[in-house]
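User: Batch of two.

Assistant: Item 1 of 2:
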Amino acid sequence: MEYDQGDADALDGMGDRKQTLQPAQARDILRTISNEDCRCLGLDPRYARPEWMVLTVLPIGPPHIRPSVAVDGGNRSADDLTHVYGNVVKANTRLQSAIRAGVSQPEREELERMLQFHVGVVCENPLPGFPMATQRTGRPLKTIRERLVGKAGRVRGNLMGKRVDFSGRSVITGDPIISIHQVGVPRSIARNLTVPETVTRYNVGRLQQLVANGPEEHPGAKYIIREDGSRVDLQYVTSTAELRLRHGWVVERHLQDDDVVLFNRQPSLHKMSIMCHRVKVLDYSTFRLNLVCTTPYNADFDGDEMNLHALQTLPAIAEAATMMAVPDLIVSSQNNRPVMGVIQDTLLGSSFFTRRDCFLEKGKLMNILMWMYTWNGRIPKPSIMVPNKSAPG
């Protein structure tokens, strides 16, 4: 693309070797770019002209993103963003007054730079190469960029990793007895977490018993929600046994065995960092996890903590049980191989049991057979009858 030197000389200040490019000049230069050149730059001129990137109108955030807060004495304190917008208005008013008064070019440029500074602070504070904008107390103003980025920002702090209701957190310990699709939940957590269940003619008797048990005895219930939406806290009801449930009411009952929950270990790095388990309420104060499930969570039992989420709606429960259940995620979708397998004492025990010189006393053998749900009830004849009856492992 060829440019005429005469066009360049026509622009004010283009003859100087070193010069300051004012925003108005930059906008005039960008405005001369043709629609064809815009398309070469990858822009659609109907929606994105280059000169539109120079702000001429400042959008103002609505009050609900910068709410004022009440302080002592009935006064209200404005949000940091409101302070910044106020500074922009003041700088703009000073510039308008100076233009009307006909001040010199250097003074006008200084006021323009001040206006630019305050507009830039709306987006980011501090700006590179500029002093930090502060309140009268010296506290830095928290503007749009500071609210979005970082660990405490909107995305990481309020959207992706926020605090949520109906969740619990505790230390995990290994339990080779529970199934891979189960998670052992402490009774204290099961009493705190609730699952809403609508009263029907099929479950009214069971839910009535839970309501009678109250919020302190497990399994029990914490709240009743009537058809009009009013909530009854069973903690403050003198006689829970006298409350008669009606069809259509909702009982927020304690977490019970076989409830569907989500189990998560941070950092959540892949799909199997959050999986669906079924509750097994147990004594003591730790979450119990089968050792086979430690691989996808990358968990060990040296103090790791994990999160449990009690699902609240039937669609959420159905989706989790269908798509996130542990038995359905054994084969990894990344490389088509099992992500979970027999490890540690399971492998060691299997090796010991299957050795030809392994003999078990009848009592131990019977205890082991109690855990075999597919056992047909037959025991092979013992290899050694005297002095103690034993059977092959």
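Item 2 of 2:
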Amino acid sequence: MVPLVGLRKITPSLVILAGWFSQDCSAWTPIKASTTDIHHSSSRREILGVGIASIMGFITTTSTPQPVQAFDNKISTKYDDRPKRRGSKPENLGVMSRKDLVGEEYMGLKHCGAAPNCFCSTDSIEDDPEHSIPAWIWPQESDKESAFAQLSEVISSYQPGQANVDGGGFKIITNDPKNGYMYIQFESLKNGYIDDVELALIDGTGERTIQVRSSSRLGYLDFGVNAKRLNYIAAKLRAKGWDAKGVDLNTHANYAIQNELV
């Protein structure tokens, strides 16, 4: 709960409008205070100070974007003084039990949801053709260890700013070849929006197969950022002999139209 005191003109004939707002401002609990209580407990100046401090503190902690540093491999320092809107790391990332539209369980990555700002290879093409993309398959002659070595090489050599995306840089947060999982964060240059990318080897989803998820944290549209990122990485993997198709805008026409790519 967040204390909030709203003051109008303080006179002996008026009471203070005081109470508690819930953290999301959806509920208000009034507290009755008489003018006698006011005179006995605090001066008008003290009460006014508390009220203003409470209001300003509430606004500051809930509404103001906080400045943060971009990743070290960002392409420019031009927007370093601009407040960044990174968003919170989504819950339930990683490989875990999911449910499809009919309630059947499967092991997969987090569902994309409804917004056209996400792609996920474990989202069924029958259930969600708008977000589903093909998984990536490593070459026949490679094994799990060499496949993840190639993934790490390709991701590490990613060029921030390619196709005018991810200018804020990126960072590999988790690289766990033993358990077949990689998690990377990519950042936009101006506003510091963070996108989450996961690459995972999931038992039962195909031999030599890496499942892929790339999603924006904030907003509704991504203006092609996730597609451009995945297509860049997929092209680098194809050069190493992978079957990595990326995002085909012909089969994701709604994404392309909404994000103004056509």
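The first strand starts at residue 2 and ends at 6.
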